[in-house]
Each structure stands twice: as structure tokens, then as C-alpha cells.
Design a protein that fits this description.
This protein has two domains: 179 residues, HAD superfamily/HAD-like (Rossmann fold, 3-Layer(aba) Sandwich), CATH 3.40.50; 156 residues, no CATH class. Helix content is 53%, strand content 9%. The protein has eleven helices and ten strands. The two termini are 32 Å apart. The structure holds magnesium ion (MG). The site of magnesium ion has 7 residues, from loops. It is a multi-pass membrane protein.
């Protein structure tokens, strides 16, 4: 599990996938939660988890600091309500009596049920409520699902309910990415550090590695579709490529004189179609993975731009290839291979630059 960190989170900085698990804030303990700040933000209803948030698992001995914090909250006018997944109802009732707080019972977190019941019971809107709990998979997820902001507190003790360990394991997998959205780490006095972390670092090197991997998948897509179109697809009893090639050679004998046979004449046309599919593959993965573009609004515009960049890349590839194939002396096979590699490298550099600075520019 990642090292514990406290502060405010800005979920816009991370993928939508993690949003339901991302708290608004993380605090080292309940007492570290700034009540005035909550009040100033319009919060009036504080929803509280019990185990490892207010008290150790199964425990009923509340730390003076916890009681003090709860009393302060009550004094300020907050409504306090416990949302617990505990099955030990008698203990829960003793606790609510002891602390003088409310509770509701309903389907367990991360179900929205208890959150909604609490909102109804106290006539509050979701934006007036705040959930405080130690578990991402129950307290935080349930709150977010109910449209309520959540504060994640560091769990009190390592002793926990057995199945909770599964939740903790998943939590451990999630915290790394989620910490990337931490914007204001707090110092030991609970004050926000003045430096705000920059938006997720978009390292060019990492992007290029991803871009190259996507390029390799597109190469495979291109090859597979070429095979499919040239060697597999039939129109009637004959291969499509032979029919197309035959027509081309009959209609434009000069233009297709390079072709060894009908399939060879169809190759540039069907090959181009395959390239368009491969470009689509590149577009999708580069958009989502390499450049991590979020939102759907600009998708079509980005696709047009990406295709423009890629088509220019295709031309560059061929021009560079042809140029060096004619320049490089010696064995034709060697010059072909070298010229081909040079064309691919120059085109890849162009495509990467064009994708980064133009197609997916944010
Ligand atoms: Mg708990």
C-alpha cells in the first residue's frame, strides 16, 4: 500500500475510472478534520463511520480527542449521524447513546441506502453532507455514489474485520493512482502546503514509449487486415484482390504496369484501406492511453486531425523511403531495408510530434 498522505484531492486530475473511490480530502485522524472549514463550505450534516474511524474495531473506549471533536461539532450546529456496517446493533446503540449522536440503519455501504436515509431524516441535500470514514471501498465509494463528498481518515488500528482485508487489498491498488490527484498536501500542523502540485506530469519519454507500443499494435492490425483483404475476401468465386487488380490493370495499364500480377495491382488500394483501419486503432489507443484525453466533446475533431497527421506521415514515410532507396548504394536488398527503416523512423517522429502538438493538443 502507498504511504499515507493527507490533503485535498482534485479528481479532475485522474481518470474517470477512479472518481467513485476518490475522497475530497484525506486527514490523519478524525480530530484533524477542520470543522470550521466544513462549516464554511456549507456542510451541516456529518456522517460518521465507526470502526477504525471513531474507535478501534469492536471497541467502545473513545479517545478524549474524539469526544472533544464530536462535542465541538455539535456545539457549532452540525448534525452528527453514524453510518456503520456493523452487525452488532446493540453495540451501535450503546455508542450512539454514549456519544449523543444519531444513526440510521439500511443496506450496507457502499450501497447508497444509509446515505439517502440520513439525508431524508435530517432534510439535507447531498452537498450539505460530508462522510468521514477510513475505508475507500465502503465509506468513500458509498458517499460518492450518493453524491456526497467524503473525507478519508487514516484507519486507527491494524486489527480489522476479516473480509475488510479484501477491501484493503483493493484499496491498496487504488491509492497509488488516486494519490496522483492530491493537490494540497498538509504539513504536520494540518496546514495546506503552499505549493500546489502541477497537473499530472506528461513526460514526453513515457508518451513516446506508449506511442511506440501503440504503433506496434497498429502494425499488427495493418498486417492482419492486409492479409484478410488481399488473401481471404472473395467476391463470388474469385478473390476480391484479383478482381480489383484485374480491373485496374485493364483500365489503367500504364499506371499499374509495376504490378507483377492482379493481386499486386490491388495491393496499394487494399493496403491503403488496411492503413485506415490501423490508423483508427492508433487513434483510439493514443487518445485514451498515450495522451490520456478525457471527455468526448472533441473526439471527432481530434480524429480528423489525427488522420490528417497520419496521412501526411504516410506520405513522409514513402518520400523518405524512395529518396534513400535511390541514394544508398550497394545491394538493393540492403538499401531497401535501410531506406524502409529510415522512412518509418522519420514518419514515427512526425506522427508523434503531430499527435502531441496538434491532434491531441489540450
Ligand atoms: Mg471503518
Amino acid at each position: 500500500m502507498s504511504r499515507w498522505q493527507s490533503g485535498d484531492f482534485d479528481r479532475e486530475r485522474i481518470s474517470d475510472f477512479f472518481h467513485p473511490f476518490t475522497p475530497a480530502h484525506a486527514a490523519d485522524s478524525l480530530e484533524q478534520v477542520d470543522l470550521q472549514r466544513l462549516w464554511d463550505r456549507g456542510k451541516r450534516l456529518i456522517l460518521l463511520d465507526v470502526d477504525n474511524t471513531l474507535v478501534e474495531w469492536k471497541g467502545e473506549n473513545f479517545a478524549p480527542a474524539v469526544v472533544e471533536w464530536l462535542e465541538k461539532a455539535k456545539g457549532m450546529g452540525f448534525t452528527l449521524c453514524i453510518l456503520s456496517n456493523t452487525r452488532r446493533v446493540e453495540r451501535l446503540m450503546r455508542i450512539t447513546q454514549l456519544l449523543g449522536v444519531e444513526t440510521v440503519r439500511g443496506r450496507f455501504k457502499p450501497s447508497r441506502a444509509m446515505y439517502r436515509l440520513a439525508l431524508i431524516k435530517f432534510h439535507k441535500k447531498p452537498e450539505e453532507a460530508i462522510m468521514i470514514g477510513d475505508q475507500m471501498m465502503t465509506d468513500i465509494l458509498g458517499a460518492n455514489r450518493a453524491g456526497i463528498d467524503a473525507i478519508w481518515v487514516r484507519k486507527m488500528a491494524s486489527k480489522e474485520f476479516g473480509p475488510t482485508r479484501i477491501n484493503r487489498f483493493i484499496e491498496g491498488l487504488l491509492t497509488g493512482p488516486i494519490y496522483k490527484s492530491l493537490i494540497t498536501p498538509l504539513d504536520e500542523h494540518g496546514n495546506a502546503a503552499e505549493v500546489t502540485k502541477p497537473l499530472r506530469e506528461r513526460s514526453v519519454y513515457h508518451q513516446f514509449v506508449k506511442f511506440a507500443i501503440v504503433g506496434a499494435t497498429s502494425f499488427a492490425v495493418d498486417l492482419a487486415i492486409k492479409f484478410f483483404l488481399i488473401r481471404y475476401v472473395h467476391a463470388g468465386n474469385q478473390l476480391l484482390s484479383e478482381q480489383v487488380g484485374h480491373t485496374l490493370r485493364t483500365d489503367f495499364p500504364g499506371l499499374f504496369s509495376f504490378a507483377r500480377d492482379d493481386q499486386g495491382a490491388a495491393a496499394p488500394i487494399l493496403g491503403f484501406i488496411a492503413s485506415l483501419f490501423a490508423m483508427f486503432n492508433s487513434f483510439v489507443w493514443n487518445r485514451l492511453w498515450t495522451f490520456e484525453v478525457r471527455g468526448k466533446e472533441e473526439r471527432l475533431k481530434q480524429m480528423k486531425r489525427f488522420y490528417a497527421v497520419s496521412l501526411v506521415g504516410l506520405v513522409i514515410n514513402n518520400v523518405v523511403f524512395t529518396l534513400f532507396f535511390n541514394i544508398i548504394p550497394g545491394h538493393r536488398g540492403v538499401s531497401l531495408a535501410v531506406a524502409n527503416a529510415l522512412g518509418a523512423v522519420v514518419a514515427a517522429a512526425w506522427n508523434f510530434y503531430g499527435s502531441r502538438r496538434y491532434a491531441f493538443k489540450q
